[in-house]
Write a structure and sequence with these properties.
The complex is a heterodimer. By secondary structure, chain A is an alpha/beta fold. By secondary structure, chain B is an alpha/beta fold. Chain B has 8 helices and 6 strands. Chain B has helices spanning 15-28, 76-82, 102-105, 115-122, 130-137, 143-152, 159-169, 175-186; strands at 2-10, 32-36, 47-55, 68-73, 86-95, 124-128. In chain B, strand 4 (68-73), helix 2 and strand 5 form a beta-alpha-beta unit. The chains are: A alpha/beta, B alpha/beta. Strand 8 (167-172) of chain A pairs antiparallel with strand 2 of chain B. The structure holds thiamine diphosphate (TPP) and iron/sulfur cluster (SF4) (2 copies).
Chain lengths: 584, 188
């Protein structure tokens, strides 16, 4: 009997990639896709790496495919925007060895800056899109994806969502089967996308999508479950894809269900036949009405976004209430203090933001743990759009309003984000004569996504020790004259540095260096304790908003020793010496 | 039959480990199991929820409002936040411990008073101060197994089934202390 194992959706994807005989994988972290690479690197015979960004990762996979092996790239959905350029043109070129990308969407915005729907990108880029609905399917669909990729000469996207990526269920394990490498042959009509060739390829791509749509009508992953469920005497049916399928099964196991394992292109004939077999047709798809709009365009009437939401995750209760019209008699959610995510106790970003707050400096922000500096009480970050945008938007402000305006602004950007796309922005500031100040928050890791290595940590995905990118030399190499390194916990020195650099009419970079508090060995051997007899109840120590500190009823301070990291930031805020370090 | 369990707490408290132990116990007992976890942003000190569902067949991976048979809360305010997910006859296991959200730390909002008493009026509640027990054992981090031990008393699996899975799930060096923590809750 084959071995079975409980697996996270992302672990099952990694297993599928391995079983499919893939030889090269490249990725950039992003919730909820990150664990795929972390699992994949544990398998022998697959080369898996972290790239500095998603465009690079995709191009690595493209190169591997052209050389004739099966290749893989994975990212979160906003990462696909960064990788859009190679994707759209590689869609024209098509593959040599199979090439599959897993792109993870985040309906409900658990960890993202928007709620975009990758299925729309797949339509625009004319690539097939598969959508598993549990861990077992996640593994199986990866293997289908490679077959489709090679049969139809196309990159294939497997789209997952947070719920799929981070749910576990049982998966049947199979062996790795490595197909023979395809033979690379020089073929510029296929592999060189210049106008004359691309014209021809565009026609081929159109035909490919027609062929795929035809294949979709009988493909093994598009399935119909015939049911006899009726409402008010009418037979009801659902067309659904991905995780929403599970909610339909939960509530209406006896309804007719057309489950789309591939949402691009759609199996038109199959859908028409299914629609004709029911009286009321519901389209139950999270995010955009991708299936619904196409189905309607074929003159089929259906119910979709008029009763289901575009924003947010779906649920079984949504079907109970809006389809079955059940009164669920649920208790209201209580009105109590919310608990948003915050910077950890001992986080170096808290020290940096305390300094900016004290100096009343606005920060053009970026994406990472430090985005949390936007929230009270630090309230230091003013803007966050996408990775890399802090630096370039600061430049735009200066060009719009002049140097005096940006004297009380800085750009803050994490180390991983700086290498992702921030470095291009910095080159623009140098080239176009900016006078801004950029703070690279170098905490030696990609914190937000769960502590991945990057080109400046000196370690690869597989744990190999390699030379690290040196930020100071990198910035100096660009030609920037004023580059300095500071320790954020030396609050006075950082204050002085920021004051000097924002007032200097020249481009400057401050590399703010201190490791993330959650990295191994970063817990100090002591904790901080309040001295009740010295405390004047001023609350200065509370200003940075460390969650280990609380103010008691009488105004005195309590520190939760199980949470305190011993960083000493609160001590540097206290003017009367009412806090002391004691051994853990 | 499908049973629904929720574990709620504050990011960093280790809800993930607990849901994996729960999932393991149910899987060993031959059930179909789905576990749904939270990774990423919410782990930074925010409110976190994980779900474990088991039975003869399980479709959706999450537990919705009004559906939980057992709610395990690692913190009082989080117990209050998610109590409406319980079925009318559901059981609430709460770690009698307080972690202030940032609005409370800064004095902008008040931490609600008498949470457990309030919850007891509506639900069957079992409470334990897992942190106190864990500190007594010498490692605050194992408090979640104290709470799990108490929860285990209200579920249909034998002590041995729990201990087997704990041994397989926690890091080898910590099996002993985690088992002790579990027993402290189980025998409470
Ligand atoms: C284009 C894109 N790719 C990936 C992500 C996911 N993501 C969010 S923050 C982050 C990196 C954070 O690392 P760093 O800049 O070092 O800051 P830290 O969290 O360590 O403070 C990543 C990869 C994203 N939001 N956008
Ligand atoms: S994970 Fe690291 S960088 Fe992120 S908030 Fe915590 S200490 Fe700060
Ligand atoms: S209580 Fe003070 S020393 Fe401890 S983590 Fe918070 S700021 Fe740092």
């Amino acid at each position: 009997m084959k071995e079975k194992k409980m697996m996270l959706g992302n672990a099952a994807i990694a297993r599928g990639v391995w079983e499919a005989g893939v030889k090269v994988s490249s990725a950039y972290p992003g919730t909820p896709s990150t664990e795929i690479s972390e699992e994949l690197v544990k398998y022998p015979d697959v080369y898996a790496e972290w790239a500095p960004n998603e465009k690079v990762a995709t191009e690595v996979a493209i190169g591997a495919s052209i050389s004739g092996v099966r290749s893989f790239a994975t990212m979160k959905m906003v990462g696909l925007n960064v990788a859009a350029d190679p994707l759209y043109s590689f869609s024209y070129a098509g593959v040599t060895g199979g090439m599959v990308m897993v792109v993870a969407d985040d309906p409900g915005l658990y960890s993202s800056q928007n709620e975009q729907d990758t299925r729309m990108v797949c339509r625009a880029a004319m690539v097939p899109c598969l959508e598993p609905s549990d861990s077992q399917e996640a593994k199986d669909y990866i293997k289908y994806a490679y077959e489709i990729s090679e049969k139809f000469d196309t990159p294939v996207i497997v789209r997952t969502t947070t719920r799929l990526a981070h749910s576990q269920c049982e998966v049947t394990l199979e062996d790795r089967v490595v197909p023979d490498d395809k033979v690379y042959e020089r073929n510029i009509a296929k592999n060189v996308m210049m106008p004359a060739m691309a014209k021809g390829r565009h026609l081929i791509v159109e035909k490919r999508m027609k062929d795929l749509a035809e294949y979709a009508n009988t493909a093994p992953f598009n399935t119909i479950e015939k049911g006899d469920m009726t409402i008010d005497g009418k037979r009801i049916g659902f067309i659904t894809d991905g995780i929403p399928y599970q909610y339909v099964k939960e509530v209406c196991p006896n309804a007719s269900i057309l489950k789309l394992g591939m949402c691009n292109p759609l199996p038109r004939k199959m859908i028409e036949d299914f629609a004709a077999s029911v009286d009321v047709l519901y389209i139950f798809e999270e995010l955009e009405p991708v299936i619904e709009e196409q189905v309607r365009s074929w003159g089929i009437s259906c119910i979709g976004k008029e009763i289901f939401t575009i924003q947010g995750e779906y649920s079984a209760n949504m079907i109970r209430e809006r389809v079955l019209k059940m009164d669920l008699d649920l208790d209201e959610a209580p009105q109590i203090p919310p608990r948003p995510p915050i910077l950890c106790p001992g986080c170096p970003h808290r020290a940096t933001f305390s300094v900016l707050k004290k100096l009343r400096i606005h920060a053009a922000g970026d994406i990472g743990c430090y985005t949390l500096g936007a929230l009270a009480p630090l309230s230091a970050v003013d803007t966050t759009i996408c990775m890399g945008s802090s630096i370039s938007s600061l430049h735009g402000m200066e060009k719009a309003k002049g140097f005096d305006y940006i004297k009380n602004w800085v750009a803050v950007i994490g180390d991983s984000t700086f290498l992702h796309t921030g470095v291009n922005s910095l080159i623009n500031l140098f080239y176009n004569q900016s006078h801004g100040t950029v703070l690279i928050l170098d905490n030696r890791t990609t914190g937000m996504t769960g502590h991945q290595d990057h080109p400046a940590t000196g370690k690869t995905l597989s744990g190999e020790i390699v030379p690290a990118v040196d930020f100071k030399k990198l910035c100096e190499g660009i030609g920037i004259e004023h580059v300095r390194e500071e320790d954020p916990f030396d609050v006075d020195a950082l204050t002085k540095a920021v004051k000097e650099e924002v007032n200097r009419e020249a481009l400057s970079v401050i590399i703010v260096k201190a490791p993330c508090a959650l990295l191994k060995g970063q817990q100090h051997p002591y904790v901080v304790e309040p001295l009740a007899d010295k405390c004047v109840h001023c609350g200065a120590c509370l200003q940075p908003g460390c969650p280990a500190l609380t103010k008691k009823e009488d105004g005195s301070i309590a520190i939760d020793a199980t949470m305190c990291n011993g960083c000493g930031l609160c001590m540097s805020m206290c003017k009367v010496g009412a806090l002391q370090k004691v051994k853990r | 039959m499908t049973k629904n369990i929720m574990i709620v707490g504050v990011g960093g408290q280790g809800t993930l480990l607990t849901s994996r132990i729960l999932g393991g116990v149910m899987e060993n007992a031959g059930y179909k199991v789905k576990v749904s976890e939270v990774h990423g942003m919410a782990q930074r000190g925010g409110s976190v929820v994980t779900f474990v569902r088991y039975g003869d067949s399980v479709a959706e991976p999450i537990v919705e409002e009004g559906q939980a048979d057992v709610l395990i809360a690692f913190e009082r305010l989080e117990a209050l936040r998610y109590a409406h997910f319980l079925k009318k006859d559901g059981v609430l296991i709460v770690n009698d411990w307080r972690i202030d959200p940032i609005s409370v730390v800064m004095g902008a909002q008040k931490y609600p008073e008498k949470i457990i008493e309030k919850l007891e009026r509506k639900h069957t509640v079992y409470k334990i101060n897992g942190m106190e027990e864990a500190l007594r054992l010498g490692n605050s981090r194992v408090f979640n197994n104290v709470v799990l031990g108490m929860a285990a008393r209200h579920m249909d699996f034998s002590l041995q089934e729990w201990l087997d899975v704990i041994e397989k799930t926690v890091p080898a060096k910590t099996v002993e202390i985690n088992t002790k923590a579990f027993m402290a809750g189980y025998e409470h």
